[in-house]
Write a structure and sequence with these properties.
This protein is mainly alpha-helical. The chain has a single domain, classed as Nucleotidyltransferases  domain 2 (Four Helix Bundle (Hemerythrin (Met), subunit A)). The protein has five helices and no strands. Helix 1 packs across helix 5, helix 2 packs across helix 3 and helix 2 runs parallel beside helix 5. The radius of gyration is 15 Å and the shape is globular.
Length: 131
């Protein structure tokens, strides 16, 4: 049953990454930028849930682990490589969900293009290999 739950969560994460990739492939305007940001948020949340499920199944964390503990365990076992990128992803996700500012939206979309998408894609590849 546990593997089935991880497989389902992995499929959701993969769909979120694919949706983000599709948005990034479009010519950017305000509408597409908003789509990139929303899909970035979804990719991040599904990544974190997928990490949590995998770590639980590997008995690397307790069922009561906080979001911070999930991320720390993911670094410890090598699922997340570049802590600077992932720290920036977390900060960007927190900023994007609290208020809308046009200049922040442009910066967030650029960050997703330049750094975050590659981190999501690498995590997805790694999780699929470990599945």
């Amino acid at each position: 049953m546990g593997e089935d739950r991880f497989d389902l969560q992995l499929a959701v994460f993969e769909k979120a990454v694919s949706a983000l990739e599709l948005a990034l492939a479009q010519p950017e305007d305000e509408f597409i930028r908003d789509s990139i940001i929303k899909r970035f948020e979804l990719a991040f949340e599904t990544a974190r849930k997928c990490l949590r499920r995998w770590l639980l199944e590997q008995q690397e964390i307790a069922g009561t682990a906080t979001k911070k503990e999930v991320m720390e365990a993911a670094y410890r076992v090598g699922l997340l490589g570049d802590s600077a990128v992932w720290n920036d992803i977390v900060a960007c996700r927190n900023d994007s969900s609290h208020e809308y500012d046009a200049s922040k939206a442009v910066a967030t979309a650029a960050f997703v293009r330049e750094r975050a998408f590659a981190a999501f894609a690498a995590l997805l590849r790694d999780l699929k290999q470990r599945a």
